[in-house]
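For this section, I looked closely at a protein sequence along with its fold in token form, which I now present.
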Amino acid sequence: MSIMNASQQDKGLKVALIHDWLTGMRGGERVLELICRLFPDAPLHTLLFLPDSVTSTISNRRVHTSLLQHLPMAASKYRNYLPLFPLFAETNKVRDADLAISTSHAVAKSMVSRRVRQKPLVHICYIHTPMRYVWERFDDYFGPERVGWVLSNLFFRPIAAYLRLYDRWTVHRVDQFVANSRFVADMVRRHYNRDALVLPPPVNFNKFSRVVRCPEDWYLVVSALVPYKKIDLAIRAVAALGRELTIVGDGPEKKRLLQLVESLKARVKFVGALDDTDLMAYYGRAKALLFPGVEDFGIVPVEAIASGCPVIALAEGGVLDSMTPATALLYNDASADGLRNAIQEFEGDPTRFNERILRERAKEFSEENFMRRFQEILATVGAVYS
């Protein structure tokens, strides 16, 4: 089987795309958007589709949704249906295609039929992470400190065990994993016993590189407000130092974080989710970006350095694929005190980072480089499975 480019798709190669759910434009959806540009006519399979939440590049095609689309309050509470995700995946699988490309952080990699066909279906999975809430980060979401001992151990742990079994059971449906970082490739090896190629996700370098830097005396966090992002550590660190912090993003943790800010009397401002144009202004004015969590890759630090904004990041996870000592102050103590000490070290050497070097590093993760390397992978994998 040969892998054709998008202009050749209509001449015989049937391509299908798969994504977990379409409820907003985050890093995973940015990857999907570029793949959609390669295959503008390919149908898309997903658990849940909110058309106004994604770009027209994604939405202007046939979209096949699962049973989740029709369940009560699914648009806002779809995570509550987590135990049923395998059912939704099994009843919304790609069947009639030569090439399936999934972008997965939950069950998208499972949404491919392996029944005997005249021609083999080749499945390439671009994996952002194995299901984080049942593998590496169960306690962040469902640990006793978050939901109580009874719910954690008697309800959520059995569900997580069942989902891990399903996750492993469907690994054979993927021909080639492509991980977004070495960190995720290592998880694929440990959890699935499979090797993965590594291709970092893209940043819109052409857009963010236009930011004019006029740094002010406050720090920035850009993140979904979810447990594993460890935004509480950033709040505690700046509160201990009496510094100002602006948080861009929204999510289920907002109420808890607001309570923490109030209890600490911290100088923290929440501005909600922003589009790229408004976000660029914050990258331009922030003293530095704070990045205290362990990410699978972490596109936000790359956006920051593309904008000329230095980064203070925990030296763990996918950020080690993108950040270097020339672009970020990397620290090892994964606590509020560790971040506080890193901020003090950063402030002790205000000329430590060079804006030109920051932007040059970010350019390596441009959309153009991603597209070129992804097409090379398509061609290579297609040749192997021909």
